[in-house]
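Researcher: Good morning. I'm working through a list of sequences from a screen, and I'd like to move beyond sequence-only analysis. For each chain I'm collecting a predicted structure so we can compare shapes side by side. This is the next one on the list. No need for commentary yet; just the structure.
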Amino acid sequence: MDLSDCPSPHSLANRAGRLLWNVAWVVSCRFSPRPLWGWRRMWLRLFGARIGAGALVFPSTKIWAPWNLEMGEHACLGPEVECYCVDRIRLGAHALVSQYAFLCAASHDYEQRRLPLVTAPIAIGPSVWVAADAFVGPGVTIGEGAVVGARACVVKDVEAWTVVGGNPARFLKRREIRSS
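Model: Good morning. Structure tokens for this chain:
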């Protein structure tokens, strides 16, 4: 199967915007000191991201299209997180996405010869923790307070206040918050 004659599903404006974004991020943010959270928030907002007060984006985070990103207050995209926001990705307030996690809002229709791009938004609720190296697929909603275990592969919605893990992710237990 020769896919070289398949046109990009992305407009010229989209591709140009992503090129400009990538250059701006590498030059202005990628090597910025970790404490310059406000500097990186400013650059994300300049490119259309909706970023809440106190949100944290690490300099090594990779964001595909910031205009499709929304982060609530004090939400965090950790080190080396890949945010493939071909479609909308929304993080609720105080949501934490740990190192090396991959948020993937697009895939391909493998039942068609030319494998056309298909996209679906990801919604990560408030107070969610997506642990290290987890994968969250297109169209997934993770309910408030849920925990996605390290290296989990989430391809279906996760109920609020539950803990899931494994590949594919499955229910492990209810999440209960103990007072300290």
